[in-house]
Amino acid sequence: MLGGIVALLGLVTGAILLEVLGTILFALTVAYVLLPVQGWLVRRGLTEWTGAAAATLLGFASAVAVFSPILVTLYFRIDQVMAVIEGLPRQIPVTAFGMTYTIDVAEMQTLALDVLSSVAVSFASALPVLAIKFALFVILLFALLLKGDAAGRAAVAPVPHAYRDVVYALARRARETLYAIYVLQLATSIATLLIGYPLFWLLGYEAALTLAIIAAILQFVPIIGPSLLIAPIALYHVAVGDLVAAVLIGVLGIALVAWFPDVGVRPRLARRSAGLPGSLYFVGFTGGLFTLGAIGIVVGPLIVAVFVEAVDILADEVNGDATFSDLVEADLEEPPGSRGTETTMTTPEELPPEESGSHAADD
């Protein structure tokens, strides 16, 4: 009953705090990743308060490192991005099988410019709200790190002791997934930025830093990642007839910016990750982004990973170590009559002596 009351009050609280729910979820996930850091600092001699403060400072610095390039690009480089889009040819001729086709991209240019203008205006008007939400994030992060043990005890309190191993397994999968999202993706994005900036600069692009920042941000998009940036740039060079530049940016960009960080950085940090397949990660990423907005980038893959872990636990509980083929063969070999339930009468003579005697005594 008490657990139900807590769940009901949690739903009511979530409805009231709906406007800042994304900030709260973001703080919860970051705190969950930083709790081991806070524990490590405490074991090294810091107090609970100073350890929580140091871990909060680390989370604050990480958040600034992630979001400041995005804010700088939107605030200082938006005019350059719009100028590049405006400089694209209005029509792109494509020759194939001796015939020339003309692709009209004027409408796409106008749509892209309108979207960028609206994003810039919305960002400028939302700056005060973003500042308040960022302050809320820091305060909540510190509170969660300082009282993380109490929060954990409260979270598992409604769960019966016999099922707490399931909760701990789900919590472990959640921590591994968040580690993969925050630590692995952040490290891969930083590597993309460090590789992309000199590459774009050497190839002669004026907005080399802006392109490198966009590539680093796109690294959070699973599977395709910075290819979303490299492919349009290569197509642009093809459209204007600069095939050498198209080959250079296509080959070097895909190999060094889109592919190498995943191969060179990710495997070295993937020991503690959840190992979620890329297809499922992509489903969680896109579904969370379209449904919840920016926070869905984290919440979507997290929910998918926890759901997969719950399905695995259920399968192990019911089927043990049997494979799907073993289960199919066992079901096919089972006699049809044994699948139903039959009720038969048993006489005292058919029972063992102990049971027969007990029944006679009961009669």
From TrEMBL:
The keyword Membrane applies. Keywords: Membrane, Transmembrane, Transmembrane helix. InterPro entries: AI-2E-like. The chain crosses the membrane at residues 24-42, 54-76, 123-146, 179-201, 207-231, 238-260, 280-308. Residues 329-363 are annotated as: Disordered. It is found in: Membrane. It is a multi-pass membrane protein. GO terms for cellular component: membrane. It holds the Pfam family AI-2E_transport. Belongs to the autoinducer-2 exporter (AI-2E) (TC 2.A.86) family. This is AI-2E family transporter. It comes from Natronorubrum aibiense.
